[in-house]
């Protein structure tokens, strides 16, 4: 394949230190041929967006298991839009109640993956949606 | 343990049996070519005395309450007293958590276990910028002594034992507990409980660190020294494998890395000039009860035997209490599924049973809805009732170490021990646990196991009911706990009021003392206690320490 690999930023947002899922996904995406950057813990939405721009990624995957997703996920999309970036696919994951998902999607999080999602489903989703956002 | 000629005869008979079975298997193959535990220990078709050829009852098992404590740390175990039933609880404000505590005590819980929210665990007050969205979420928000007073309001601290999951700011929270007790008229020597206080595993697996390893270890040994003198019944650390396991380790890695961290704490305390038998009896452990039933039971038994040997042979402890590995167990949160959540009740029951058969001193059973939200009152009640059924209805508490002597359990215990020693030797070669962590060694080993586990689930090799087998179409679950979003405002308002009402001169003075103590090598506990009593906030106290000690920068290993 001569096609350029998809670049993904996996980010741990907020103070939550449970990064097993984030790291497993980072590895699965890498094994699937993507270029993956992992931010490490305790990232603010501002830091996540800054890294995403510096690293020129096409996808941001944000993870939070502490229940802070409603406060941490939407600002990532807002900050991207403020900077005029509309082609970065933002997806989220973690312990996220079903009832919060419509709000997150409305805020521009393209898809939310909850516990039990196979990594293959995430890989497939990224391949099919990279370069598009929910606005389109 | 077995007569030599009889063993030889048996060996011959076993071989014959194996030959017969072989021809059967050619016609009716077994479900799998190879069976193994989650730690990749091969499981044989059958265990017999031949599997335990070199087994020495006296040396390998001994008697309960005696070295090497394989069969338990108490001579009568649960015949004398049941384990402490201790549900980890905390959310929202101190008021709400105080209500949950009282509810659990009314339902027959026998100890408390406090979950703190992330800002508290990382040393930020509720009004800190980084606390946004996190206040009161995964635990209770504690900003000052005032919140601790509310948290334990109406709960006599001389009558309960309290476990507190707090690590980086453990000294501060312990000081608050001592101060609350004092206000209730309870002297420190009557206090019973545990602070987790295990910073090494935070760098490895849980992420709620503040300071770099050096000052963190000093805070820990300061607590050991202070409590040995002033709070003698307090468990000064709970060396935790739980989070190592949740991060994806195997059972063998869980024990190996936890005990390696334990070795580092003991060494640090000895290096700080403490006598091993002075602090070691107050060390406690915290393990995970996962799904592979027999491996988990064997794991607990092996851990006790290895720790006893480490304390006796490596550190020259003389007091048998220093050699006893006492532990709290929690069932494995990471095994709970969001799919068909009621199935989690069954998983938890088996995990809890393995902890009891493994001889735990205290137990938390997870609630079935935890892959979805914090436990509701209904789900936590079922979790507690699960323990009560095991304790009172099924008879497994009537004899000590009921599985001791099982050919399978003893073989597995031996193999786990052997594999754990290999890791400990490897870590010793690197210069000990802190060095191994610095190199990212433990982190890498754990991640490899986590990834293998995930792949096994996705390939279907590892069955998870409701996730990759026996799937069902489901309605979203109802009745999940939601933390009131107004918690933040209430907490910030309270904090503001406190700052207006307290004596600012007293606070400034106390923080000044703390700073000079931190810059010297005097024990930090008295200065922290003074600051806490002056109603300095957790954030203020941590900030002083941050300025003196600096902050830890994470090693990213993927």
From TrEMBL, chain A:
Family annotation (PANTHER family): METHYLMALONYL-COA MUTASE, LARGE SUBUNIT, METHYLMALONYL-COA MUTASE, MITOCHONDRIAL-RELATED
Species name: Calderihabitans maritimus
InterPro entries in the record: Acid_CoA_mut_C (IPR006159), Cobalamin-bd (IPR006158), Cobalamin-bd_sf (IPR036724)
NCBIfam families per UniProt: acid_CoA_mut_C (TIGR00640)
Cofactor: adenosylcob(III)alamin
Keyword Oxidoreductase: no
Protein name: Methylmalonyl-CoA mutase
Residue ranges of domain B12-binding in the record: 5-133
Keyword terms: Cobalamin, Cobalt, Isomerase, Metal-binding
Entry keyword Metal-binding: yes
GO molecular function: cobalamin binding; isomerase activity; metal ion binding
TrEMBL record, chain B:
One Pfam family this sequence matches: MM_CoA_mutase
Keyword Metal-binding attached: yes
Residue span, Methylmalonyl-CoA mutase alpha/beta chain catalytic domain: 37-551
UniProt keyword list: Cobalamin, Cobalt, Isomerase, Metal-binding
Top-level lineage group: Bacteria
Top EC group: isomerase
Presence of keyword Transcription regulation: no
Cofactor names: adenosylcob(III)alamin
Catalytic activity, EC: 5.4.99.2
Record-linked SUPFAM superfamilies: Cobalamin (vitamin B12)-dependent enzymes
GO MF assignments: cobalamin binding; metal ion binding; methylmalonyl-CoA mutase activity
NCBIfam families in UniProt: acid_CoA_mut_N
Family label: Belongs to the methylmalonyl-CoA mutase family.
Name the record gives this protein: methylmalonyl-CoA mutase
Organism annotation: Calderihabitans maritimus
